[in-house]
Automatic annotation (TrEMBL):
InterPro entries: ATP_synth_OSCP/delta_N_sf (IPR026015), ATPase_OSCP/dsu (IPR000711). It is a peripheral membrane protein. It is found in: Cell membrane; Membrane. This is ATP synthase subunit delta. It holds the Pfam family OSCP. Keywords: ATP synthesis, Cell membrane, CF(1), Hydrogen ion transport, Ion transport, Membrane, Transport. HAMAP family: ATP_synth_delta_bact (MF_01416). F(1)F(0) ATP synthase produces ATP from ADP in the presence of a proton or sodium gradient. F-type ATPases consist of two structural domains, F(1) containing the extramembraneous catalytic core and F(0) containing the membrane proton channel, linked together by a central stalk and a peripheral stalk. During catalysis, ATP synthesis in the catalytic domain of F(1) is coupled via a rotary mechanism of the central stalk subunits to proton translocation. Its main location: membrane. SUPFAM superfamilies: N-terminal domain of the delta subunit of the F1F0-ATP synthase. Belongs to the ATPase delta chain family.
Amino acid sequence: MAKLVSATYGDALFELAVEESKVDSLYAEATDCLKVFEENSELGRLLNHPKIDKSEKEKVIENAFGQFVSKDITGLLVLMVSKDRQKQIMETLRYFIGKIKEYKKIGSAVVSTAKPLTAAQKEKVLSRLLATTGYVDFEIDYIVDESLIGGMVIRIGDRVVDSSIKTKLDEFAKDLKKIQLA
């Protein structure tokens, strides 16, 4: 199976980052570049416009990023534009950022609760996640979902731990429906 474009370029940048001990700096630069692309949809439209010459697109990348990020990141972006891969730039940056997080053992979690958590509760959630996983740090997004009634739902990648009252009530209702009265 052919390797995805984002994986090909992202893996190459990751290997460079590790070999040259630039993991932290390239991670920060990739995060900043991704934010620029996400916040400026006009940049994406310009890079994908069929009537704009490749050399002009490359100059735009050089001018927009050359002063602010390393030649490694700028070179990656210019290379992707020169190979007509500009549509995969954001996906490649996300892939690279994910590889760095994996390398640095930084987990990403989404915690949903019925009410906002206090700072002490957030600290308990963080310490529990660190104790039960192989990660050394976590980036946690806290979401308030009043439909949960109580408890919490924690998502880490494709794993879900659901201790919400809503889910327990739903399971209880299913169990009650299975009971047959004589």
